[in-house]
Amino acid sequence: MASESSHSVYYVPEQTKFPFFASIGLFFMVFGLGSVLNDISASESATGSTWIALAGFTLLSFIIFQWFATVIRENHAGLNNEQLKRSYVWGMLWFIFSEVMFFAAFFGALFYVRNLSVPWLGGEGEKGVAGEFLWPEFQAAWPLINNPDSSIFTNPHEALNVHEWSLSFFAGYLPFWNTVILITSSVTLHYAHHALKHENRKRLIQWMFVTVGLGIIFLGLQALEYVEAYGHYGLTLDSGIYGSTFFLLTGFHGFHVTLGTFILIVMLLRCLKGHFKPDDHFGFEAAAWYWHFVDVVWVMLFFFVYLL
Amino acid sequence: MSTSSAALDHSHDDHHHGPAKGFSRWLFTTNHKDIGSMYLWFSFAMFLLGGTFALVIRAELFQPGLQFVEPNFFNQMTTMHGLVMVFGAVMPAFVGLANWMIPLMIGAPDMALPRMNNWSFWILPFAFALMVSTLFMEGGGPNFGWTFYAPLSTTYAPSSVTYFIFAVHIMGASSIMGAINVIATILNMRAPGMTLMKMPLFVWTWLITAYLLIAVMPVLAGVVTMMLFDIHFGTSFFNAAGGGDPVLFQHLFWFFGHPEVYIMILPAFGVVSAIIPTFARKRLFGYDSMVYATASIAFLSFIVWAHHMFTVGMPLAGQLFFMYATMLIAVPTGVKVFNWVATMFRGAMTFETPMLFAIAFVVLFTIGGFTGVMLAMTPVDFQYHDTYFVVAHFHYVLVPGAVFSLMAAAYYWLPKWTGYMYDENLGKLHFWMSFVGVNLLFFPQHFLGLAGMPRRIPDYALQFANFNWISSVGAFLFGFSQLILLVVVIKCIRGGKKATDQVWEGAEGLEWTVPSPAPYHTFETPPDPSLIKDQ
Lengths: 308, 535
Known about the structure:
The complex is a heterodimer of chains A (308) and B (535).
Chain A: H1 2-8, H2 18-41, H3 47-76, H4 82-121, H5 129-134, H6 167-171, H7 174-197, H8 201-231, H9 241-272, H10 282-307
Chain B: H1 3-13, H2 24-28, H3 32-60, H4 71-106, H5 114-133, H6 161-188, H7 201-232, H8 246-280, H9 287-300, H10 316-328, H11 330-344, H12 353-376, H13 378-384, H14 388-418, H15 424-450, H16 465-494
């Protein structure tokens, strides 16, 4: 049967030591991390816990590195048939979808506090009664500068969102330039992919360098913005709900950009080593999908956290 | 048709590799059957552990007053019982069934991503070690209920909550990887000729369940992350003093929590849809409508979450929307129940243990469904909220619902897994003790709730005493009956009457075309398309 040939060679590895030891690493990482946080909250020394967390993280990273290396070796050895490659494609697609839902929870929280709970706290609508009893002075606003109880949650001095719609404002507005940088990096990554598909390795490597560079610049600017927020705007994690949502959304996005940049660096190194063929480069494609996803999240962030 | 010999030829082609020797077989395996077995054993262990916690609760509630435990420890028991049963017993048990049966049912050589499959499993023992160890920590374990509402789980939580959060994180990662594996397997690994609408309903229900998992487990990860930030980094997501809202926690939690309920029941629908046709010796009535009903339930599960929180205060429009959307779920669920009844109608029925559990499922799950419709009515829910009526409701859908379907599945496929028939007499004994026990245990709780007894309390007013002792007697009867299952399974592994390939006279589907016990590797070459029947 014609269809049988494509099915009959699905590669099922016999045994693997990776997952079990990765679980051990993961366990010590989160156990250590939890202990670090608890130690700090209890004002105790966190040195021991930090070492546990680091040991777990090191083991986990080492295993994941080996795991990916094995998968790449298997592909080079020709063990992966078309069907197996489709499994990887489905896996990556649905992984990205799970990431989308992770951010959806945070965006949902933002919409809820902005449009419902903060106005209710300010006395609006039938649910406003509680607000009147709790903090009658409280005025609903977004961005929220004056917290209901500023003795517990110190008010920020100023918000970081767009408050003036003029060219001169945007010219000096860091998040705007970060948006430009990240969108550009998606385009340059697309060019790199295009070069890969047309067997132009020199161009591929050039565009990959540019993309990684843009990712690093974005992260640098983002760090600068955090320094500004903490230093000049008094906007911190504990400065009320505006700071909470701001740092949660931009922070987890920044974490994903860090991860994405790291993945792209790995892809760049693989390009330099001569990996990937014009018709067989799903590792590269998966990294590109991830980067585009991170880009789309930023565009959403720019709209809902900064612009509107 | 000699279905079994055709499959034998295929599975005998490639018998160069059996299981590895020694304990490392289980640590390092990539085999879907090994991993499925580990999931099933793990979930059974968690079932006994969570059951022990439940018996502590029922012992304390046997009579009014404080007898055995401190209120704080009682709260840790209700919390841990819920968490262990939901995340440790029911969910992994269904993943175990998925691992064992989906490749066999669709004619695939294994799961699509075998190494990741092993990782999904091995995270779980570590996650639960972390979670259960909190009971022994200073300040005690989580005591805020399995729904861990803020601010109980943030401002007022014991410090062990940090470990609880990380345990939820890693078991969520395990679930997401498991779900991705299921989707890739079903979409990519079906044998030629196995079209979507020829897949057994168990495969369909798992496909839809996997989508639910991928959609909501990240939201759970998100909400526990926000808790972590509120506890350790001073954010105010769930603190109104900083402009946040504790109710936000409930919205996010139940956006995860309601689909979670269906994650635990959709595969159960699949199991029952496999068993009833076999023992009624008729095709499943309304296969297509079963598929569409499952998909409808999954869709609706995303837009009904706030029916868990009618009493927290919500605009009227919100209350009406969530009430009607919730009631709408009764329609596709009704389709399913009627289809099962119609499948049995004028069938040549026999009542082996799997069938007994399946029929009990249909009847008792439906009772749980009816109380669900009662709870869906907003004004009525104001009365029932947080009472034992709610406890009775969700235990009816989860214990004689999800858990009975798991029992049914275990008896149904045990001969295929072990190669021997289980002890039918012991099986029937297990069923009847469970059936009587579970109804004694949970039915009186309806009356307690209607009379106003609140849930999650270690002590209660005198007028609730009678129904409580009945319930506690039922609990111990039900709990200890589960040891019979352990005996049955061990006996069945060690020997007994040889099982045929088809095992059950009326059984249809690819899993019954391979030998019993199923060889270590099956369908390394796809089965003959003529073996794949229309549904």
